[in-house]
Amino acid sequence: MAMLKGLLAAVLSVAAVGAASAADAYPDKPVRFYVGFAPGGATDLLARLYAKKLGERFNQTFIVENRPGAGGNIAIQALTQAPADGYTIAMAANYVAANAAMKRNPYDWERDLMPIGMVASTPNILVVPPGSSIQSVDDLIRKAKTPGNKLTFASAGMGSSIHLAGELFKVMAGVDMTHVPYKGVTPAEVDLMSGTVDMMFGSVSTAIPLVQSKKLKALAVTGRERMKAMPDLPTIEEAGLKGYDVEAVYFMAAPAKVPAPVLKKLADAVADINKQPDVQEFMDRIYARPLTGGPEEARAFLKTEVKKWQGVVDATGMKVD
């Protein structure tokens, strides 16, 4: 018996040393970096920035792989099914919480997902086609309440902040509008510019350049504060919907059982990258605000978001389209 115990202890010791060695060597091969939306949106832009920075830090390739669809769920489900070795990560956002509130996730985020660290947040911007007769938030509400008018709003997919902003607007303004989901912000903007859909609570990183080039018309910002880039643009709260506040909040994630030493390496790297001056300058360019916080803070944030959006689901009757 003593010999058996000694042998078991030796095996466990060798396994622990092997795991530690693997963590020390991480990453010694390319890392896949999933994005749940089409190229061009804020999720994709942030993933490509952090893939470059992580690659520089670890002297290894981080390959961005776009897996759009199901409001980001295709990418996150693939992440939860990947080996928990740190060689598959994802740029996620609070759509994880919204989809959980809608009972739409094909995974249990608390059991299957490991947040690595907070990355950034951005408000959305309410935009309409350049030739739209809608001139303001008040005008939009009046038109939406006019009998016979059935306005449409585009989004980057079910559960995205762009979709959630529209659903919250509907209930707070007391209007009915039809949601038209796309597999990313770029195809949604293409149809919006052509007038195929009436409006969008768009991603600021891509919408503002289109506003500046007169390809879209801006009505308001979804966050609590006006934007430095467009100080004359009111918030939706200022337009009369008291308490209205929607932002996209981005964080990095891995499969739940990623080894603790690997998680620490990634979390430390993200925290350091967040502080780099050129990263903060990039955030300014895409109208984002860098965030701080590691795995524990990101997990606590997600729990709070699930409760918040559960309230929106209950109030709006929001369901999967």
From TrEMBL:
Signal peptide: 1-22
SUPFAM superfamilies: Periplasmic binding protein-like II (SSF53850)
Keywords: Signal
Record bears the keyword Membrane: no
Family in the record: Belongs to the UPF0065 (bug) family.
The protein, known as: Tripartite tricarboxylate transporter substrate binding protein
Species, as recorded: Achromobacter pestifer
